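lol ok so funny story. i was supposed to be doing the assay writeup but got distracted and ended up predicting the structure for this chain instead. priorities right. anyway since i did it might as well share w the group, maybe its usefull for someone
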Amino acid sequence: MRIKKVVVLYGGVSSERSISLKTGRAIYKALLKKGYRAKCIDAVGKWYERVIREKPDIVFIALHGKYGEDGRVQGLLDVFGIKYTGSGVLASALSMNKLKSREIFKANGLPVPDYYVIERSDEAKIKFIPCVVKPVDEGSTIGVSIVKKRKDFRKAVEEALKYSDKVIVERYIKGREFTVGILGDEALPCMEIIPKNEYYDYEAKYVKGMSEHICPAPISEEEEKRVKELALKAHKLLGCKAFSRVDFIKGKRDFYILEVNSIPGMTETSLLPEAAKVVGIDFPELVERIIKYSL
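and the output, tada:
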C-alpha cells in the first residue's frame, strides 16, 4: 500500500499532553521532509470525526499516557477501519498497565523487581523499605515516589492514588538505568541513562541537561546481548508492534524490567531516536520506518 496522507494524532487529555504535543510536532515535520501530506489533529472533543473527514492512509499516533497509549484510541480507530501506527488494543493496554505486564513477565521467567499492589480501598501496608511507589497505569514517572523512610510511605501512596485506582509498590533496586529501543523485530543499541536527580524522574526526562545518555552503553558484549534479548522478549510477550522502548534497572545480579513503552517519546532528542541515530537511522527515516513496520 502506498502511503500518501498521514494524520498525526497528538495532544489529547492525559497528564502527558505537553509531551505529546512535542512528539506530534516533531513527527509532523519529519513527515513533511519525507514528502508525505501530513496534518496534525489534537485528540480532544470529537477528534475522531475530524480524522474520518480527512480520510488518511494511516494515523500516526503520537499520544502518551491514558486515552492514547492504553488501547482506547486504537480500539476506536479499529471500529472505523482506520489504519494506525504501533501496537494494537491489547498490547497497548498491557504495556500501560504495570501490574498486568509484570504478571506476564514474571510468568515467563523475565526478571522484575519484587512488588505488591495496593488498591484505593486497602490499608497502605509497607512490606519492604526502601521501595518505589507508582500508579499502575501512568507514564513519565508521574505520581512516582522513592520511599526510604516509613513515615513517608502513606503520603507516597496517596500521591500515586491521585492518578490511578491501584498503586504498585516495588522493591527499590539501587543501580544503573538503561533503555533498549525496539524497531521492527530488532533491538537497537542499549543506552545508559545517567540522571542528575536521584532517579530518571519527570524533570530528568524532559528538562535539557538534567540527564546524560550514553549509547552504546558502556557494558560488556554479554550484558548487551542479555539486555537486548530481554527487551525483545518483553516486546513480543505483550504483543507490541513496529516499535517500543523497554526500560531497565541493573542490579547486582541482572537487568530488571521496569516497563515497556508502546509509544515512547519521539522528538529528535528522545531516547529511541537517539539510539536509532547510532545505527545510522535519522529521525525522518525512523518515522517512515515506523509507518512501514506498522503496516
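The chain has a mean pLDDT of 92. The chain has ten helices and 13 strands.
back to the writeup now i swear
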